[in-house]
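User: Could you walk me through two proteins back to back? I'd like the raw sequence and the structure tokens for each, with a short line separating them so I can tell where one ends and the next begins.

Assistant: Of course. Protein one, sequence then structure:
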Amino acid sequence: MISDAEGMIRALAEAEHAFDAGEVPVGAVIYHGDELISAAGNERETRQDPTAHAEVLALQKAAKHLGRRRLWGCTMYVTLEPCPMCAGALVMAGIDRVVFGAPDPKAGCCGSVYAIPEDPAFGRMTRCDGPMLAGECRKVLDRFFAERRNVSD
């Protein structure tokens, strides 16, 4: 069985790809058991699409891979705590579990601001675990924004 640390390290690789593409460096991967079935980084700027978050793109790829919209038996590893949109998408996809890296005290909806996936009002709950390797995940984000500040100075 894949460990949470291994899953998060793989998600960090996706965050680095997003960083290299000039995107806010968030990476997400989805495992079905031990099989990596999906990997994505943010592509909001590349696609000029406000919904092109790493989590949403990873969910789309996983559904295509499995040939179904319900992602039962799957775990997502994502480097930043999901926002309200992504947390809602996780619930609607029926994913079993999400493990996040860095908490997001401003918009995190897997426990920081709210816990959408664990709210029984939505009829199905998704387990949220984190933070996992938060320091490593935060470093990539901090490096990205530090470089952006230096460019604009």
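----
Protein two, same layout:
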Amino acid sequence: MGKKTYKLRYLPLFSEDLEEKLLYIAEKLQNPQAANELLDAVEKSIVERLLDAEKFEEYHSIKERAYPYYRIYVKNFVIYYVVISGGESEAIMEVRRFLYAGQNREDII
């Protein structure tokens, strides 16, 4: 049996979350360099996790879910994703949310 490969998929909600945070940092805080650095770190972290998306601890939530959530910590933010199995050797890593680490997650995800 070979190693499982993961295809990457982003939900529109993740893109909205990310854009909102990047615009806030770039425009409201007037720090476009920090926004660019955050974007680079997010992209790098997701690509690295894509190599073995299920290797990490699941996020335990009080809500019943069809797929368990996983987390990636990037600076003061958390990326949430699920893995949707497509068989023994293939699956989809679906990136769903990008939240500030201090946000109340249970009401959002």
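The longest strand covers residues 90-100.

Let me know if you want the two compared in more detail.
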